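User: I want to check something. If I give you two sequences, will you return the structure for each one separately, not as a complex?

Assistant: Yes, each is folded on its own. Here is the first sequence with its structure:
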Amino acid sequence: MHREFHVTRTAISNPGVKRGREGVTVSKATSREAAWDSPGAECLCAVSKAECFVHSNSLRNLSQTPPARPLWPARETEKHCTEHSLRCTRETQLNASAKSSVIRSVRLTLLPLQEVPSNTFRDLHNVATIEISQSDSIRIFRARAFHSLHSLSELLIRNIRNLESIEKGAFSDLPKLKHLSICNTGLRQFPDLSAISSLEPFFYLEVGDNIEIDTIPPNAFQGMTEEETYMDLVRNGFKDVQRYAFNGTKMSKLILKGNKNLRKIHDEAFEGAAGPSLLDVSLTALRSLPALGLQQVTVLTARSTKGLKTLPPLESLLNLQEAHLTYPSHCCAFHTWRRKQRENAFLGSFGNLSRLCSSSAPQEFGYPSASGGLYPDYALYDLDFQYLNLELCVSDAPIRCTPEPDAFNPCEDLLGYAYLRAATWAIAVSAVLGNLAVLAVLLTSRHKLTVSRFLMCNLAFADLCMGVYLLLIAAVDQHSRRQYYNHATDWQTGGGCGAAGFLTVFASELSVYTLAVVTLERWHTITHALRRDRKLRLRHVAALMAGGWGFSLLAALLPVLGVSSYGKVSICLPMDIETPAAQAYVVGVLLLNAAAFLAVCVCYGRIYASVRNPHLATRRSDAKMAKRMAVLIFTDFLCMAPISFFAISAALRMPLITVSHSKILLILFYPINALCNPFLYTIFTRAFRQELRLLLRRCGGCGAPRRLPRLLGQGPRHTGPCRKPSSLRFYAYHIKMQGCILNKGPK
């Protein structure tokens, strides 16, 4: 009958009989002595400050030969211990000196040992399992503590929080060891495993919850075993894995899950190792995976690894079949990569692989035929001829990858289409240059700041912000072209996308608000032209614009504060409507823009009514100017109409177009105002050309180019103010509507 010895420190109030199916438990009793029995054995356990030993006549059956000199002598009480004793010191250390084929398992729990000396278990030649656990006092395992235990297959060291060191060579010559567990200890260095020399065909190494171990050193596992190994290295304090750490191993699985401080695995960490086929780095702080040594990985798991925003070169994952990642964009990398690899490998010799593998392809290939002669179809075997490898035509099974890309983040570049990329650059550069020119002229003018100048400055600044947003989007698209999946997470979750989103929402809302104020101001000026007491002063308009700036800043800031989000889509617009607050925010902003459009419609309706009033002696040029300005405003809002329509439908969870198609609207229509406004409102006016000419005159070395007025389309030379209106009724009307908004006004 096999026997298993359990030695614990469990206090019992009534010492009595304890039985087990396979062994006997020795407990430290609250009384001085506790008697227990088992079939065929009468043992006495005496515990005091000076001694602890177990003695029984029946232990003769456990060992037929006297043990060697005990490594843990009973000191002054050694005379009480016979050759058949299990001895321990006053700290209840145990020396299992019995040597028998019936002892297969030894479990030591809750014993206050100070150390485990060398050759502790040397006489247990047939023991298969040793477990030392739940001790609060063991601090060190000496060298050769587990030496030459040729039958040992399982060694468990667990829940010893004060264990600080395992000396080099503590595990040595263990040819049958197949499971080593070192968990929840206070070790400060990775244990030395180089002398284990296991010959088992499969080895399971478990090193977990050792929060003081901060690195895996080079050659940490070399000499442990040459056979297949499953390494479960979870929830440790690892900060990095050094080069050649896994040298000399043959790994089937490597689990690094839960090492929250693990930030780096050196590129050469897997040099000299075979495998692993499964790599799990979930719940770590890794920022990148090694570029070398992952060729044999078939399953990659990196769930909840927020810092891993880029993948290694896909060529380093040649055999990958399954990936469980953190970000959906990473799965885009595997969609067409394997097919492209085959095409690139074959392209130099045969051209288009898709055409070669089509149904009509076979007739184009074969052996070269002899020309003429009696056997026209005889094949010429040319040693230099390259033949099609038909395996290239076999479709590989797609790589299973989770989480899959969603509708908001399709597998494409940031801007998606080539023509959209070109249009973005053109619009962005034109908008930035045009609005910078407007601001430069208006802010450097020596003329008095009027209401119109003030409004144009606000409009130009808003449109300039929109141009900067487009430049930022275009630059990121150029940088991440064809590899956006590797930049998507870093871009959309970083500060860059947040800044871009803030700029575009602020610019859009400020531009819409300013256009509405411009229209209201012109309507008020025309309607109350004869009422000087009703004239809008600069301080009135400044107060209105202060409110517009406050509203625009608040609208742009809310997604940053968590109401909706700029990181939902690649172009950094607040499309997140997952929460009721986010949905209300998006719908509210769109409805306010629609309300501004309706206000403009009403105001221009009133302006038309005034212009077409038969009782007013309205000049033809005045009517033409009013119509021109109306066309400008309506053009601006008509550009936004499709965006508002599709955006509101999407906000109400009834999307009518995909995100890929919406980029066309958002890039070509959404920022078109930023491009058109500076030209239509300012640059194309006669007053602006006059201001620009005066500015160039003041520039040192610039002179006053005589051809500038002609180049800018200016007609006859005219440096004075526009002609005065014929009546007081049309005084303000002429100032506001006939392109003279940049002059000082009549003298």
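And separately, the second sequence with its own structure:
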Amino acid sequence: MEKRNHSLIKQVIYVSKPIGFDEKILDRILAQSAVNNKKNNITGALICRSDLYLQFLEGPAHKIDDLYSRIKVDARHREIKLLEDTRSKRRLFSNWAMKGDPAKDWMWTESEVIDGILDRLSKNDAMEVFVRHSREIDQFLS
């Protein structure tokens, strides 16, 4: 029997395409996520714009599994693709119950998304987006 280390947190990254994206919907998602995630010891970041959601979540494995199950059936987005599912000793976004940000200018263009860049995105590429994003936040807070 495999022994699990319960001190490790679970980290997942998924990408999806929004349905009916607008700022009011996004604000509601972020506000509700911040409240729920804080209660469940979940942190993360959502990078979003009209053509993509790219989300990083981290926390206790059973809480992340429950949350991701709900995300997969949420009617506000489609084409949900899990990019990363791993364990870590430390959080990337320890101070953010849910950090919302528009897509960065160093990310993909709308035409790259249309051409399928998200379908070719590797686990390492996805993780690097959030590592870079967390460093930008850390620099801003310093």
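Because they were folded independently, the notes below concern the second chain alone. Residues 9-141 form a domain with the Alpha-Beta Plaits fold (CATH 3.30.70.100). Strands lie at 9-18, 43-49, 52-59, 77-88, 99-102.
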